[in-house]
């Protein structure tokens, strides 16, 4: 199997040093192993994605010396694929319809009988309010105007005797984890819970799209920041549920500012385009991120 990796930015702001690090690392690794580097535009958040940010991504990456095969996969063109998979999960009762607002969830999770509120990678672990709203006899269309959540407990039951869950970490997790990262459904139910697979306003979610697209593009190695380490566990469960292969994961360090905070899209001060306009070179950028 040929080494295949990708860089998958969302066009919702300028690329900063953290993105440059991720993209260069993936590109260098693909080159060193005679493999492929792909680019994917993760533009499912139609309210925040902008064509000008997408154009800027292409420009910045080319300036950094990165090249990629065309055509580039764009998630906005794959909504029918995501919908078909959601329909299947709905009919299999692996997801349920959820009408809760953030506020409903916070209130239910804080109710006295609920015990301590747990924060997972997507926020408060869902308290289960809508768990009964699932595909019923004769009514099989996915309800519109609702989010769809993965029923982690139901999946755990169905998978009790299956192989152990885990992935191979070729990089390093936030606490230094490497090698085989194993985890259990009990841990997932407790620490992650019923994650959203389809947002009301999107018809999909980051988790669902990233898993389907990595599989569709034949990605063998996923390079991504350590901030996504816990999210990777969700992706492994989805791969199991959908019969897709689990790639090797390589979580990398996060690029931080002088105060030790990780960079975010709003950190325009560290935007690649700004360094470019100041006359810095791609070699300078490599040095700044420690490559
Ligand atoms: N679009 C995601 C981001 O920009 C991609 C993360 C990933 O799965 O590698 O953070």
TrEMBL record:
- Please report the name of this protein according to its UniProt entry: tRNA glutamyl-Q(34) synthetase GluQRS
- EC number per UniProt: 6.1.1.-
What are the recorded GO MF terms, alphabetically? ligase activity
PANTHER family in alphabetical order: GLUTAMATE--TRNA LIGASE, GLUTAMYL-Q TRNA(ASP) SYNTHETASE
Q: Report the NCBIfam families cross-referenced here.
A: PRK05710.1-4
Would the keyword Transferase be found if you checked this record's keyword annotation?
no
Cell cycle found in the keyword field: no
Supply the source organism for this entry: Sulfitobacter aestuarii
Q: Per the database record, which ranges form the Glutamyl/glutaminyl-tRNA synthetase class Ib catalytic domain?
A: 4-108, 191-289
Q: Which InterPro entries match?
A: aa-tRNA-synth_I_CS, Glu/Gln-tRNA-synth, Glu/Gln-tRNA-synth_Ib_cat-dom, GluQ/Sye, Rossmann-like_a/b/a_fold
**Which Gene3D superfamilies has this protein been placed in?**
HUPs
Primary gene name: gluQRS
Keywords per UniProt:
Aminoacyl-tRNA synthetase, ATP-binding, Ligase, Metal-binding, Nucleotide-binding, Protein biosynthesis, Zinc
Q: One Pfam family, short name please?
A: tRNA-synt_1c
Q: Family assignment?
A: Belongs to the class-I aminoacyl-tRNA synthetase family.
